[in-house]
Design a protein that fits this description.
By secondary structure, the chain is an alpha/beta fold. 44% of the residues lie in helices and 17% in strands. It is built from 27 helices and 25 strands. It has a seven-stranded mixed beta sheet. Strands 2-1-3-4-5 form a five-stranded parallel beta sheet, sandwiched between helices. Strands 7-8-11-6-12 form a five-stranded parallel beta sheet, sandwiched between helices. Mean pLDDT is 83; it is low at 1-13.
């Protein structure tokens, strides 16, 4: 083995390098605790031989520590009218989501504008009056008290942000008042003032929770600055506290773009990080520096890259986090997202607390039911349920088509899309809750138009895209209204279900054959759906006479219930009503109306229990050509809260039990 000795000329000039690092630490205005750690680390590096690996590791760590935005913020723009204009310009529809975001901004605006409450406590009237006058000129609301006992009564009756109190007073001195204030109102900051300042009294006051200690005669500028810093700190804490929003809904419904619009409205920097497939918690929390190749976590890395402490941080696909032997990333998110914990978030590489409470975290998910309970409890879920056909028409006309024309180089040609052409694309070439396939199909049309324009040398303003041209360019339609165009059949009913991709329709087929009282279930069903089928069969058997069914229909017979699209896993309780009506249709010989779609959980007594995903299911019914939808009676409130545009052209039937639905769903026997 051959060792190469490094010459003195090849070695870095460590003295100058370390001097530059020390100057950078002093210039960075780090928090006191962080600066102390940085200087201690620098001392250790100074004692290390530059030729060993620990020297470079130490320097890299110090460089990273200094470069973090410990005190760098962007000022929020809290103009509600501007925020409303930004959201309206970026998105069409999504009214309830925009309202929630504007409410959030309104609360932040009020918190930032409210004046602070101060209490001045001094047994000398002249000193008390002077302090009151000075602090009122700073814009604070100021109350006064002549002694500690009077001040304590006022603290019990009202919350004060800052209390400026003298140390030596009758009845109750400043230290006694401090102890009582911390017990009664722990969030109030106390500034101790005295003309007998000693080291022991100052230390005693600070140990008991005083925020600051001033000696008489008071330097007015020092008092103003101290009060201003304490008030700003409390106000910043109020502003950073708030819900962690979780945008939940199918792909392509605008979750990420709404997050970008929020950042633009606040004039904050925006960063998006996907958590899909994340399994190693070190990706969020970082590696300890004792490991070779240690790196900081992605959260701290992104904040360092942006250079500000309060960006809008979108954690995308939070429901697709994995878990294995490398840890549970979801548990790390509890600390990152919890406002009570993230003010002291410790990345393993940085190894000092970093305040994440200023970051506005927004998470996105397709299905929140997949999230761990403790994590879901910290999130305020806002549902993105999808768009109606009318909303898609407006979005395509006002947003998608202009952008796609620019991207395709067709701005000069200015082709005009008629509303009929857009509706044809929506209804015949897409079937989704979101907009992604719609964007793809419009881009497909524009690419073909670009080729046509080059080959035919079309002049600007001559090209009109109508429904016939759409069919010529895109070919035969991809989707049909399978419900509206299908015939009514015995034993086949239409159901409504909710998936992570939005609402969907399903068909339930039931048939009978000779056998030995077996219930056969196929279609890749989960345990809950299998139990729903067994419950539906038991209800029909126990109520056979009332339903006009032979009570011995199950003797010497098997019943087979099938859900088409068997490769797709299916589960959930909301298919119980659909299964029950399919069985009744089979056993009575009455065809089921295909244009009537049902959803609801069934009990053995025939009661119908409420379901979730009401808006998504209604949109799915509209897309499929359904004319009548049946929902449980307890979902009436959810339906009343829907926009009229969502419910138009649909007849909505609310039911509490199975019996009244038989004539609604089934045709008379032939």
């Amino acid at each position: 083995m051959i060792f190469f000795r490094r010459s003195d000329e090849d070695r870095p000039r460590s003295g100058q390098e370390l001097s530059d690092v020390r100057a950078a630490i002093q210039k960075a205005n780090l928090p006191e605790s962080v600066a102390a750690i940085a200087l201690k680390e620098l001392e250790r590096v100074e004692k290390t031989d530059p030729s060993v690996a620990e020297y470079s590791i130490g320097l890299n760590y110090l460089d990273y520590l200094i470069s973090l935005p410990w005190n760098s913020f962007t000022e929020d723009n809290l103009d509600l009218r501007r925020a409303e204009r930004v959201l309206a310009f970026k998105h069409y529809g999504l009214g309830h989501i925009k309202e929630r975001i504007l409410e959030y901004l309104a609360v932040r605006t009020l918190c930032s504008l409210q004046s602070s409450n101060l209490l001045v406590v001094d047994d000398e009237e002249i000193a008390r009056t002077n302090l009151e006058y000075i602090l009122r000129k700073e814009g604070h609301q100021v109350s006064t008290a002549a002694n500690g006992a009077e001040a304590l009564e006022k603290v019990k009756a009202q919350n004060f942000d800052v209390i400026v109190t003298d140390l030596k007073m009758d009845q109750m001195d400043g230290l006694q008042l401090l102890e009582n204030v911390k017990r009664v109102s722990p969030h109030s900051e106390v500034i101790m003032v005295t003309g007998f300042a000693t080291v022991s009294t100052a230390v005693d006051a600070l140990k008991k929770g005083a925020a600051h200690y001033l000696s008489k005669p008071i330097k007015l500028e020092e008092l103003r600055q101290t009060v201003r810093e304490l008030v700003d700190r409390k106000r910043h804490f109020q502003l950073t506290r708030g819900p962690i929003l979780c945008f939940a809904g199918p792909p392509g419904t605008g979750k990420t773009s709404i997050g970008q619009a929020i950042a633009e409205a606040l004039e904050r920097k925006f960063v998006r990080m996907s958590l899909a497939g994340l399994r190693d918690e070190a990706e969020l929390r970082g590696h300890r520096r004792t490991y070779v190749g240690a790196m900081p976590g992605r959260i701290i890395n992104e904040i360092r890259r942006l250079g500000v402490k309060n960006p809008v941080f979108m954690l995308d696909e939070i429901d697709k986090i994995g878990q294995d032997f490398r840890g549970d990333p979801a548990s790390v998110l509890l600390e990152i997202l919890d406002p009570q914990q993230n003010s002291h978030f410790v990345d393993h590489y940085v190894d000092v607390p970093f305040d994440l409470s200023s970051v506005m975290f927004i998470t996105t998910a397709n299905v929140v039911e997949n999230l761990p309970g403790p994590l879901l409890d910290r999130l305020e879920v806002i549902n993105f349920s999808g768009y109606t056909e009318n909303e898609k028409l407006h979005i395509a006309r006002d947003f998608i088509i202009p952008q796609t024309l620019r991207d395709s180089g067709l701005t000069a040609m200015a082709p005009v899309f008629t509303d009929e052409a857009i509706v044809r694309i929506i209804s015949d070439y897409t079937r989704e809750a979101g907009l992604r396939n719609l964007e793809r199909e419009i881009a497909n049309v524009c690419r073909k138009l670009a080729r046509v324009c080059l080959q035919s040398k079309t002049t600007p303003g001559e090209l009109v895209v109508d429904a016939e041209l759409v069919e010529t360019l895109l070919g035969p339609r991809k989707y049909t209204h399978e419900v509206a165009e299908a015939e009514n059949r015995v034993g086949v009913t239409t159901g409504l279900v909710w998936t992570e991709f939005g609402g969907e329709i399903i068909f339930v087929e039931a048939t009978g054959m000779k056998g030995n009282k077996q219930l056969i279930l196929t279609g890749s069903l989960g345990n809950v759906m299998q139990e729903s089928a067994q419950t539906a069969l038991s209800y029909v058997r126990s109520n056979a006479t009332n339903l006009g069914v032979d009570p011995d229909f199950f003797a010497g017979s098997d019943i087979h219930i099938h859900f088409p699209s068997g490769a797709i896993p299916k589960d959930g309780p909301s298919a119980g009503v659909t299964i029950a009506l399919a069985l009744i249709s089979l056993l009575t010989g009455r065809p089921a109306r295909r244009t009537v779609a049902l959803t609801g959980e069934i009990t053995l007594s025939g009661r119908i229990l409420p379901v979730s995903g009401v808006r998504e299911k209604i949109l799915a019914a509209s897309r499929a050509g359904v004319r009548t939808v049946v929902f449980p009676k307890p979902n009436e409130v959810d339906i009343q809260n829907l926009e009229e545009d969502v419910k138009k052209e649909l007849k909505i039937v609310l039911a509490e039990e199975i019996d009244p639905l038989v004539d609604v769903v089934l045709l008379p026997a032939p």
